[in-house]
Amino acid sequence: MKNVSEMLNKLSNLDFKNMYNKDFLLTWEKTHDELEAVLTVAEILKSLRMNNISTRIFDSGLAISQFRDNSTRTRFSFASAANLLGLTVADLDEGKSQIAHGETVRETANMVSFMAEVIGIRDDMFIGKGNAYMREVSKAVQQGYEDGVLEQRPTIVNLQCDIDHPTQSMADLLHLINYFGGIENLRGKKIAMTWAYSPSYGKPLSVPQGIIGLMTRMGMEVVLAHPEGYGLMPEVVEIARENAKQSGGKFSIANSMQEAFENADVVYPKSWAPFWAMEMRTQLYDKGDFDGIKNLEKELLAENAKYKDWECNKDMMKLTKNGNALYMHCLPADITGVSCKAGEVSAEVFEKYRVELYKEAGYKPYIIAAMIFLSKVENPIKTIEKIINNGKPRFLK
Amino acid sequence: MKNVSEMLNKLSNLDFKNMYNKDFLLTWEKTHDELEAVLTVAEILKSLRMNNISTRIFDSGLAISQFRDNSTRTRFSFASAANLLGLTVADLDEGKSQIAHGETVRETANMVSFMAEVIGIRDDMFIGKGNAYMREVSKAVQQGYEDGVLEQRPTIVNLQCDIDHPTQSMADLLHLINYFGGIENLRGKKIAMTWAYSPSYGKPLSVPQGIIGLMTRMGMEVVLAHPEGYGLMPEVVEIARENAKQSGGKFSIANSMQEAFENADVVYPKSWAPFWAMEMRTQLYDKGDFDGIKNLEKELLAENAKYKDWECNKDMMKLTKNGNALYMHCLPADITGVSCKAGEVSAEVFEKYRVELYKEAGYKPYIIAAMIFLSKVENPIKTIEKIINNGKPRFLK
Amino acid sequence: MKNVSEMLNKLSNLDFKNMYNKDFLLTWEKTHDELEAVLTVAEILKSLRMNNISTRIFDSGLAISQFRDNSTRTRFSFASAANLLGLTVADLDEGKSQIAHGETVRETANMVSFMAEVIGIRDDMFIGKGNAYMREVSKAVQQGYEDGVLEQRPTIVNLQCDIDHPTQSMADLLHLINYFGGIENLRGKKIAMTWAYSPSYGKPLSVPQGIIGLMTRMGMEVVLAHPEGYGLMPEVVEIARENAKQSGGKFSIANSMQEAFENADVVYPKSWAPFWAMEMRTQLYDKGDFDGIKNLEKELLAENAKYKDWECNKDMMKLTKNGNALYMHCLPADITGVSCKAGEVSAEVFEKYRVELYKEAGYKPYIIAAMIFLSKVENPIKTIEKIINNGKPRFLK
């Protein structure tokens, strides 16, 4: 497998030793080398699987998944990644469990982790809560490991929080790398991360924040566009600005989809709720003020409705580089005339890019597997070589 | 293992190459050789397991299960089959997932299938919907595979739809083969697939339809019996009639349980709702007319109540060949005095055949495993020989 | 692995051949040797895992879990144990399944067990029901096995019933053995199993009953303490008394926490509902008298409130041996000022023992695995030696 040895070669030139026994919570907490290591290991795992070589490094072990919000894609991506490495998913469902009954996070985190290698968490509903919860769990299992309670230190993988959605943005990045033929080719490319109209309300900020936080690391020209009042978390915008400086890329904010699409190589039109609204909703939930939530929802839907022209359609696409930019979305998209009357994207544009969108999503299981692999395995290169030498078939054909 | 080599020998004389990468949706879409291949591989897998040889051909891979109706038996049979081959079940639960939220079938089918080898679906509630849904999923993953979205093409296995229940009817057939000592001994045997009284309402048509659609392939004399108005789907009845012609068997419709039981070798008394009623119910659901549904239910229960004498009891059984026909049921049965006041079968008859009924159900995991095996493995005989030569124990005793 | 060979040596001096193909329902149905075998195999499995040797003795097979009451710890302990041995958990959820719809226990038990090696059951809500249900399931699969319906005989493991909580008490015992440096050192040690105040109501009796039923086997001085009217099942108290006689230990009942704590080496303060109340609640549920249940709850909470001084705090602990007894709990505990206003234990005492409490819980997965191992494997010593000789890594580092 020629390309695998090339990728191992590449891996050997990257410094990622600090990923060992560490979590993956925010892309901007990782070095550029560490991000490249994830991308490279993801490609290696994909290539090994396609060559029917089993990458099952665990003969036993659990992968805990905790979804505090609905999920199909990420749930199955996590299940696929765990399975690819030999881990068995155990769902921590607060319905089934006793967490609801006043049990502390620390205790539960340890109680479920005696044989857990990884804990994947989605907690994206409330500002200031999701990522904080993940860190609380991380601290709990780290302490449990140090205290000799846990025989291994489970890795926390962020499956979407209030701040970032690293498994999504990294999958998106790997898609871009393959689409443009190499990470080096992303330098200078313009990506438009723009708000788009949706009849639904309260969509998380983590995807747009994840995209501007990550793509600015790659020397890209990142334009964030949204109607006035639909701003993201200020800290994350600051991080994007700083990243662009560091990487020699660009970061700017526009107030129209047109401006953002202008000559863009990549467009990522997606709906989200204003940061201030997500914050207010969080406070209303804390107070249990459900009338307040209803009113906020009405207000936001009315506000959204003012911006129905923020739709990614054929005319918009004409503005992009050669009218031929790559259209991206984390899915599911609100498709005009398909999943709703008026939405984020026209059926025509969506159809044109459907296969690419599916491929984009297809990287996620490998990205998650790579995140787990790099955190659990002390010497990834040596272990990958062992896997190749063992040459155990994934599927006894 | 003498009998395994005999069965491999038999397999080598069957033509089943077209099963590779194909779904299993209706038994009458399969050739006689293909059905025999499923039966033979099921027996081989059973024999290997009983000889403590692991048939785990997958070192990783997912088996997606989607149950749009309750299930215990089939759920566990599918889980057992997947596990026997080394696949891990991932449940596509529309409660947990986002499907409910307007996501297209095509997209979801691909999103969950990046590492899926098989998708087992139960969708039996609504006429014209279940089997159609399975074909929609099949088309979606076939296209995803051709577009390079999916690295493998997941097999769709029909775990009960509105038309057929192939994993049930094939397990029933394997039971008959073992009971009568060979598939050739089924020729000319009379099987009575008769309606029976049940206090419950709206039971699917897929079991009786599956039985008349399959057993008529085996040269059996199949008698379908039901009260007037309780007819099955006309197309399926037509298929049964045609099958009987082809196979040199017989197919007829009787209007009394007595007539059907007369000199029967096998009886399969089971309740079902009239086809017209299932169709009407589907339309009422489409319209959201829940009063209409309530009224229909009342009407049907009243209609059912006219036929309480359609019970499989000792006197009925006396009419069968030497009063000793084999009693079959897909379970759970409505047992008079046990699970209901008056039902499909008397406690006495059920008790006499209980062990046989349990064995009948016990073939289902192997049938499902065989369906998966024959669709995934390009050269089943060679792979089975590899399994035997590896001789890996299922259980390290 | 020196200590493993020592433990194998110990194992070879124990008589546990009767555990083969037997259930684990009550500790007092097992001989002292059998209990020691479980403890020893648990330690061996733990040691092998820590030495990165895979103990996956099953290449395929299901572990059915049925939780008729909420559970986090035990659910994950069972999942961990099954996974450690190579079994895949399949959840028998009466919500999902058809059991609710009048299907007999016998039938369901067989239908889910065609490839099941173990069935773990929690059924602790109703007096006279839980353990009885487990025996019914056991009888069903035993008969299925004898009738040739099942190819293997699934082991029933009691994951908490109305009478005992053997996986908890055995994990507690293993914790004591490690804490005091050997089972022989438990002889003569005083353990106080005392009631403690909790604002919640209707906690099962199985933990205190399990503790007095097991620790009296070890030659310990067991003191059961509770307010008047909070007695346990008389039969179990009788068993404890008898055990103490047999083992040369002591068993007594005190009416104050102080008296029980006096000079104790170990304290186990935990809330439970009075036996008479649990019995009455069971009858009320049988009658469907929900007002009666509400009234009983009120009454019990009021009764509980009289005993808020039954709290394990610093002053209470001062009464114990050198003010330094080991504090135990099955978790989650009602911690004063943390999970409730006033509870079973002060935050200060809980904090001091938190790590020990977590370690106590950490033995449960190994205890469950050992119970399964000793029931499934005909010659455990030989199999463990095979595992060591194979030396297959659990984790390919």
From TrEMBL, chains A, B, C:
Its EC number is 2.1.3.3. Residues 22-176 form the Aspartate/ornithine carbamoyltransferase carbamoyl-P binding domain. SUPFAM superfamilies: Aspartate/ornithine carbamoyltransferase. The keyword Transferase applies. It comes from Thermobrachium celere DSM 8682. Belongs to the aspartate/ornithine carbamoyltransferase superfamily. NCBIfam families: PRK07200.1, ygeW. It comes from the Bacteria. Residues 212-372 form the Aspartate/ornithine carbamoyltransferase Asp/Orn-binding domain. The keyword Ligase does not apply. Keywords: Transferase. One of its GO terms (molecular function) is amino acid binding. GO terms for biological process: citrulline biosynthetic process; L-arginine biosynthetic process via ornithine. This is Ornithine carbamoyltransferase.
